[in-house]
Amino acid sequence: MSKIKILDLTISSIGSIYSALRKTGVKNIEVVRDLKSLQREHLLVIPGNGNFGQASTALDQHNLRSYLQDFISNGGKILGICLGMQILAISSEESDEGVGLNYFKTKVKRFPNEKNLRIPNIGWAEVTASSNPFNFHSLKAPSDFYFSHSYFVEDSPNISGKLTSNNGTFEFCCGIVQEQIIAVQFHPEKSSRSGAKFLDDVVSWANE
Predict the structure, then answer these.
(1) Cα angle vertex 84, ends 169, 50, to 5°?
(2) Residue numbers annotated as active site
(3) Which pTM value belongs to this model?
(4) pLDDT value of residue 47
């Protein structure tokens, strides 16, 4: 990995993730709004606070879908964070018209209206890895990460490398760790030491 590219969809702040990635020691980090210069050896970060529908519209307005498809087909690696995880799914209950990137064959759901759930789910919660295919040090034991969301990627039998967390008594998929795509619902850039360790692991994975 010679460079990290942070995709700016112009719908949320990217300052925190930029600063957190700089702390991993990577010096060549670029914020981009198009992917014309994206190459296989780059790590592409899709950050995110914001609305699924707005993100879907931004992908179309900037003709990003075909670039992303080519990048994945050529072996490129992606880190998706929060909305950046959700947009990798098929669709979301947050937007009737928004269409995701369809890399995860599942949909994004809103937390059910149960009395013991926080909606939105804001704060620290424990994350557990059902498998750890890249032997990430940050995932070897359950650790607390920071969340801020009302929607989550629905679990599916075709999801491997799954991370889970709980909102009250409700367990949900909060991360997917696969060969070319790592996506998490929590915010590593806001998760103190555990988040820093996770980003260190991601950078090491991207350099393999």
Answers:
(1) 85
(2) 82, 187, 189
(3) 0.96
(4) 94
